[in-house]
Amino acid sequence: MKTLEEYIVLAGQSHGHICPGQILGIRMAMLGLGSIGIDDPAKARKRLFTIVEIDRCATDALSLVTGCRLGKRSLKFLDYGKVAATFVDLETGRAVRVAARDDSRAKAKAMFPAISDASQAQLEAYKVMESDELFNLQAVRVELKPEDLPGRPRSRVPCAQCGEGINDGRERRLGDRILCRSCAGERYYEPVTSDE
What CATH number labels 4-146? Predict the structure, then answer.
Protein backbone atom coordinates (compact mmCIF):
# COMPACT_ATOMS: atom_id res chain seq x y z
CA MET A 1 0.00 0.00 0.00
CA LYS A 2 1.19 3.50 -0.74
CA THR A 3 1.79 6.05 2.00
CA LEU A 4 -0.76 8.66 2.99
CA GLU A 5 1.37 11.34 1.33
CA GLU A 6 1.52 9.39 -1.95
CA TYR A 7 -2.25 8.90 -1.94
CA ILE A 8 -2.79 12.62 -1.23
CA VAL A 9 -0.81 13.54 -4.35
CA LEU A 10 -2.75 11.03 -6.46
CA ALA A 11 -6.08 12.14 -4.98
CA GLY A 12 -5.33 15.76 -5.83
CA GLN A 13 -4.59 14.79 -9.41
CA SER A 14 -7.64 12.53 -9.72
CA HIS A 15 -10.24 14.59 -7.85
CA GLY A 16 -8.97 18.03 -8.77
CA HIS A 17 -8.27 19.31 -5.26
CA ILE A 18 -7.41 18.15 -1.77
CA CYS A 19 -10.00 18.69 0.93
CA PRO A 20 -10.86 17.15 4.30
CA GLY A 21 -13.15 14.64 2.58
CA GLN A 22 -10.29 13.38 0.43
CA ILE A 23 -8.12 12.84 3.51
CA LEU A 24 -10.98 11.06 5.29
CA GLY A 25 -11.56 8.81 2.29
CA ILE A 26 -7.89 7.90 1.93
CA ARG A 27 -7.46 7.15 5.62
CA MET A 28 -10.79 5.32 5.81
CA ALA A 29 -9.77 3.04 2.95
CA MET A 30 -6.30 2.43 4.37
CA LEU A 31 -7.78 1.52 7.76
CA GLY A 32 -10.51 -0.66 6.27
CA LEU A 33 -8.16 -2.57 4.01
CA GLY A 34 -5.63 -3.12 6.77
CA SER A 35 -8.39 -4.36 9.07
CA ILE A 36 -9.44 -7.10 6.64
CA GLY A 37 -5.86 -8.11 5.90
CA ILE A 38 -5.36 -6.50 2.50
CA ASP A 39 -2.03 -4.71 2.39
CA ASP A 40 -1.79 -4.25 -1.37
CA PRO A 41 -5.11 -3.32 -2.98
CA ALA A 42 -3.59 -3.56 -6.47
CA LYS A 43 -3.07 -7.30 -5.93
CA ALA A 44 -6.51 -7.77 -4.37
CA ARG A 45 -8.72 -6.21 -7.03
CA LYS A 46 -10.67 -9.40 -7.76
CA ARG A 47 -11.41 -10.08 -4.10
CA LEU A 48 -12.17 -6.59 -2.78
CA PHE A 49 -15.69 -5.17 -2.63
CA THR A 50 -16.51 -1.75 -1.16
CA ILE A 51 -19.84 -0.19 -0.22
CA VAL A 52 -19.88 3.59 0.24
CA GLU A 53 -22.65 5.47 2.03
CA ILE A 54 -22.11 8.99 0.70
CA ASP A 55 -21.63 10.65 -2.67
CA ARG A 56 -19.06 13.24 -1.65
CA CYS A 57 -15.32 13.79 -2.00
CA ALA A 58 -14.43 10.90 0.30
CA THR A 59 -15.88 8.43 -2.21
CA ASP A 60 -13.41 9.43 -4.92
CA ALA A 61 -10.53 8.90 -2.49
CA LEU A 62 -11.92 5.52 -1.38
CA SER A 63 -12.09 4.43 -4.99
CA LEU A 64 -8.55 5.65 -5.62
CA VAL A 65 -7.07 3.67 -2.74
CA THR A 66 -9.11 0.48 -3.13
CA GLY A 67 -9.24 0.37 -6.91
CA CYS A 68 -12.95 -0.44 -6.59
CA ARG A 69 -15.09 1.14 -9.30
CA LEU A 70 -18.79 1.31 -10.13
CA GLY A 71 -18.04 0.15 -13.66
CA LYS A 72 -16.16 -2.89 -12.35
CA ARG A 73 -19.09 -3.65 -10.01
CA SER A 74 -16.70 -3.76 -7.07
CA LEU A 75 -17.99 -0.45 -5.66
CA LYS A 76 -21.59 0.00 -4.53
CA PHE A 77 -23.20 3.26 -3.48
CA LEU A 78 -25.97 3.13 -0.88
CA ASP A 79 -27.24 6.63 -0.15
CA TYR A 80 -27.26 6.76 3.65
CA GLY A 81 -25.74 10.26 3.74
CA LYS A 82 -22.93 9.12 6.06
CA VAL A 83 -19.18 9.40 5.65
CA ALA A 84 -18.83 5.66 5.98
CA ALA A 85 -17.78 2.64 3.95
CA THR A 86 -17.73 -1.11 4.32
CA PHE A 87 -14.81 -3.13 2.98
CA VAL A 88 -15.36 -6.81 2.14
CA ASP A 89 -12.80 -9.47 1.30
CA LEU A 90 -14.77 -11.73 -1.03
CA GLU A 91 -12.33 -14.63 -0.51
CA THR A 92 -12.42 -14.74 3.29
CA GLY A 93 -15.76 -13.06 3.95
CA ARG A 94 -14.10 -10.67 6.41
CA ALA A 95 -15.70 -7.24 6.42
CA VAL A 96 -15.43 -4.02 8.38
CA ARG A 97 -17.44 -0.83 8.37
CA VAL A 98 -15.50 2.38 8.94
CA ALA A 99 -17.43 5.55 9.80
CA ALA A 100 -16.05 9.04 10.32
CA ARG A 101 -16.63 10.31 13.86
CA ASP A 102 -18.64 13.50 14.00
CA ASP A 103 -16.63 14.80 16.94
CA SER A 104 -13.46 14.79 14.82
CA ARG A 105 -14.42 18.22 13.45
CA ALA A 106 -14.27 19.80 16.92
CA LYS A 107 -11.05 17.93 17.68
CA ALA A 108 -9.52 19.28 14.46
CA LYS A 109 -10.33 22.84 15.48
CA ALA A 110 -8.80 22.25 18.93
CA MET A 111 -5.66 20.71 17.39
CA PHE A 112 -5.05 23.67 15.08
CA PRO A 113 -6.54 26.75 16.81
CA ALA A 114 -4.24 29.09 14.86
CA ILE A 115 -5.88 28.05 11.57
CA SER A 116 -9.02 30.18 11.28
CA ASP A 117 -10.45 28.33 8.27
CA ALA A 118 -12.30 25.28 9.67
CA SER A 119 -11.84 23.27 6.48
CA GLN A 120 -8.08 23.87 6.46
CA ALA A 121 -7.84 22.91 10.15
CA GLN A 122 -9.74 19.70 9.42
CA LEU A 123 -7.52 18.93 6.46
CA GLU A 124 -4.36 19.25 8.56
CA ALA A 125 -5.80 17.44 11.58
CA TYR A 126 -7.19 14.53 9.58
CA LYS A 127 -3.68 13.84 8.29
CA VAL A 128 -2.28 13.30 11.81
CA MET A 129 -5.15 12.27 14.09
CA GLU A 130 -5.09 8.75 15.48
CA SER A 131 -7.45 6.43 13.62
CA ASP A 132 -9.61 5.82 16.71
CA GLU A 133 -10.11 9.59 17.10
CA LEU A 134 -11.14 9.90 13.48
CA PHE A 135 -13.17 6.75 12.85
CA ASN A 136 -15.40 4.14 14.38
CA LEU A 137 -14.39 0.68 13.17
CA GLN A 138 -16.77 -2.26 13.39
CA ALA A 139 -16.47 -5.84 12.19
CA VAL A 140 -19.61 -6.66 10.18
CA ARG A 141 -21.17 -9.41 8.10
CA VAL A 142 -22.35 -8.51 4.61
CA GLU A 143 -24.63 -10.86 2.71
CA LEU A 144 -24.06 -10.20 -0.97
CA LYS A 145 -26.43 -11.58 -3.58
CA PRO A 146 -24.81 -13.21 -6.62
CA GLU A 147 -26.38 -10.55 -8.86
CA ASP A 148 -24.57 -7.82 -6.89
CA LEU A 149 -21.09 -9.29 -7.26
CA PRO A 150 -18.48 -8.16 -9.77
CA GLY A 151 -18.38 -9.85 -13.13
CA ARG A 152 -20.62 -10.28 -16.11
CA PRO A 153 -24.39 -9.89 -15.75
CA ARG A 154 -26.02 -13.04 -14.45
CA SER A 155 -29.33 -12.30 -16.17
CA ARG A 156 -30.79 -9.89 -18.72
CA VAL A 157 -34.42 -9.47 -19.71
CA PRO A 158 -36.21 -6.88 -21.86
CA CYS A 159 -38.83 -4.54 -20.43
CA ALA A 160 -42.24 -5.42 -21.89
CA GLN A 161 -43.11 -1.72 -22.18
CA CYS A 162 -40.01 0.22 -23.33
CA GLY A 163 -37.92 -2.67 -24.63
CA GLU A 164 -34.77 -1.64 -22.75
CA GLY A 165 -32.64 -4.45 -21.30
CA ILE A 166 -32.57 -4.97 -17.54
CA ASN A 167 -29.60 -6.66 -15.87
CA ASP A 168 -29.27 -8.78 -12.77
CA GLY A 169 -32.77 -9.06 -11.36
CA ARG A 170 -33.52 -5.35 -11.27
CA GLU A 171 -36.79 -5.91 -13.14
CA ARG A 172 -40.24 -5.66 -11.59
CA ARG A 173 -43.03 -8.15 -12.21
CA LEU A 174 -46.49 -6.69 -12.51
CA GLY A 175 -48.92 -9.49 -13.15
CA ASP A 176 -47.51 -11.44 -16.06
CA ARG A 177 -45.44 -8.50 -17.36
CA ILE A 178 -41.76 -7.87 -16.76
CA LEU A 179 -41.04 -4.15 -16.50
CA CYS A 180 -38.02 -1.99 -15.81
CA ARG A 181 -38.23 0.12 -12.66
CA SER A 182 -39.02 3.24 -14.69
CA CYS A 183 -41.97 1.69 -16.49
CA ALA A 184 -43.15 0.16 -13.20
CA GLY A 185 -43.53 3.67 -11.76
CA GLU A 186 -40.18 4.09 -10.00
CA ARG A 187 -38.93 6.66 -12.50
CA TYR A 188 -36.53 9.39 -11.32
CA TYR A 189 -37.15 11.40 -14.48
CA GLU A 190 -40.17 12.63 -16.38
CA PRO A 191 -40.10 12.37 -20.17
CA VAL A 192 -40.82 15.60 -22.03
CA THR A 193 -42.44 15.91 -25.40
CA SER A 194 -41.05 17.99 -28.22
CA ASP A 195 -43.91 20.45 -27.63
CA GLU A 196 -42.61 21.39 -24.15
Answer: 3.30.1330.130
